[in-house]
Design brief:
Order of helices and strands: HEHEEEEHEEHEEHHEH
Structural class: alpha+beta
CATH class of the largest domain: Alpha Beta
Distance between the termini: 29 Å
Largest sheet: 5 strands, mixed
Low-confidence stretches: none
Amino acid sequence: MNFTDYNQPNPALAEGELQLNEFQHMLYLATYNQKNDQKLVPIGATAVYPLPLYSTKHTSVSQIPQGGSVVIPNDPTNQARGLLVLQQAGLISLRNGGNGFSTIADIDQAKSKVTVKAIDAGQTAQSLDSVDGAIVNNNYATSAKLGEDRIIAKDDPNSDIAKPYINVFVAREKDKDNATYKKLVSIYHDPDVEAAVKKSLGDNGVLKNYDPAELHQLTVDLQKQVANNGG
């Protein structure tokens, strides 16, 4: 089943319309669970994809002018991650250094080079012709046929701070030990399947295969962080 935006697959899974979904990273899942009092659980990892800043007008961050414009996804977790990418690139400054829960309100405009607007993730790639840069998630970048030559900045998928952004297969809690679903995770990490994934989604992602118990604990820890940050 295909969906048009990120807000649909988790409710569909929680309500039993789906048995599994695979579209989100750990922090997105933890935020959904915490805010909706749900207990969806990760049963296997897929990959970590860097979150890139694309531009069709510039070939480097340094070319973006003072007062330039950048768009980022508006869902909470990708918004915060996008802001951290922009800060790392020297385009904005976040008060108190920023974190995985930062919002546009946390931008110190006086110390920032660009203005930032948060829009629907599905519209970020289409906005490139009218802005200096756009943070675009991997799936939307692939659909828009954005090549790596358009990337002018990105975060590091191998860093420890990338763990919250591990993409996962997700099931309802009662199905977390379902043998068939576990088999699907195993098939995903077959070398031939992994090769096909890279061919389809590009080589910029780093495939990950974590123990489900470790993923579950990470979800619990992240949900606590979400709660402590007002989620």
